[in-house]
Design goal:
Layout: E1 13-14, E2 18-22, H1 25-38, H2 54-66, E3 72-78, E4 92-102, E5 107-114, H3 122-136, E6 148-154, H4 158-166, E7 170-180, H5 191-197, E8 205-214, H6 215-230
Parallel strand pairs: 5-6
Antiparallel strand pairs: 1-2, 2-3, 3-4, 4-5, 6-8, 7-8
Helix pairs in contact: 1-2, 3-6
Pfam families: Acetyltransf_3
Protein name: Acyl-CoA N-acyltransferase
InterPro entries: Acyl_CoA_acyltransferase, GNAT_dom, Ribosomal_N-acetyltransferase
Length: 234
C-alpha cells in the first residue's frame, strides 16, 4: 500500500487541540467514505468521483493522492474529544490536504473537509493553522519555508471564502471558468458552449476564487494565526 511520495517530509503535526496524522487508507478510508455517503453536502462545492466503498476510495487514493509527489493528505483528529478513550475513531474529524505542490515554485495549495459533527468548532482553524506554520515557517523554525500557499474555492462557497479571509489569506481575484467541474453539485452549465463549438458532452465548469499567503507577509500574519488557533471556540 502506498503511503505517499510527497515532495517533502509528511510528518505528524499537532498542538493541544488537534493532531494531523498522515492519511493511511487502511485506517482512515472507511470512515471517510461513510461520511461522504451520508453527508452529501460535504461535496457540494468539490468535484469528486462517485465512490461507494472503501476499496474504491483506496484505488482512487493510490492513483491520485498516494503516488503523485505533488499531493499529500492528513487525517484530522480532535484531541479535546472526551470519548476518545472509549472509541478512538470518535475524534477523527476530517481531512486536510496539500496539493499541486511545486518544488520549483516553492508553492502549495491547502484543501480541507471537516465532518459535520466537528464543523463550527476549533478543528478547522487549528488544522489549517498547523499546515500554515509547517509550510510557511522558515527551516530554522521547523517549517518548509515555502514562498506561497494558495486557497482556491468555488466562487459560490461563501463559508470557504470566509474561512480563507479569517485565516489571513489575501483575495487575489476570480479565475473565470478555471476548471472543469464534473460531479460538482454547483456547476456552470455548458449548453451555450456546446452550441458555439458544435459539440456534445462538454463538461460543466466553475469560477474559482483565488486566495494566497506569501512568505514576505507571513511574519506579520503569523501571530494572528497563532492567536486564532488558541481560541478553542474558533
Amino acid at each position: 500500500m502506498s503511503k505517499g511520495a510527497f515532495h517533502y517530509e509528511q510528518r505528524r503535526l499537532e498542538n493541544d487541540l488537534v493532531a494531523l496524522e498522515p492519511f493511511d487508507p487502511t485506517i482512515h478510508a472507511a470512515r471517510f467514505v461513510e461520511e461522504i455517503k451520508t453527508s452529501s453536502n460535504l461535496l457540494t462545492y468539490i468535484a469528486f468521483p462517485t465512490i461507494n466503498t472503501k476499496e474504491e476510495f483506496i484505488e482512487f487514493y493510490d492513483k491520485h493522492i498516494g503516488s503523485p509527489p505533488e499531493e499529500c493528505l492528513y487525517a484530522i483528529y480532535d484531541k479535546t474529544n472526551a470519548s476518545e478513550e472509549e472509541n478512538p475513531d470518535s475524534n477523527y474529524a476530517g481531512t486536510v490536504a496539500l496539493s499541486a505542490t511545486s518544488l520549483v515554485n516553492a508553492a502549495t495549495e491547502v484543501g480541507i473537509i471537516i465532518f459535520p459533527a466537528f464543523q463550527r468548532t476549533h478543528v478547522a482553524t487549528n488544522a489549517i493553522g498547523l499546515l500554515l506554520l509547517y509550510t510557511l515557517d522558515s527551516p530554522s523554525l521547523g517549517g518548509l519555508g515555502l514562498r506561497r500557499v494558495e486557497w482556491k474555492t468555488h466562487t459560490e462557497n461563501a463559508a470557504s471564502r470566509r474561512a480563507a479571509l479569517r485565516m489571513g489569506f489575501e483575495f487575489e481575484g476570480v479565475a473565470r471558468w478555471q476548471r472543469v467541474f464534473p460531479g460538482g453539485q454547483v456547476a456552470l452549465p455548458v449548453d451555450a458552449l456546446e452550441k458555439r463549438n458544435g459539440t456534445k458532452g462538454e463538461l460543466p465548469g466553475r469560477h474559482t476564487a483565488m486566495y494566497s499567503i506569501v512568505w514576505d507577509e507571513w511574519d506579520e500574519k503569523r501571530p494572528k494565526v497563532v492567536a486564532l488557533m488558541s481560541r478553542t471556540g474558533a
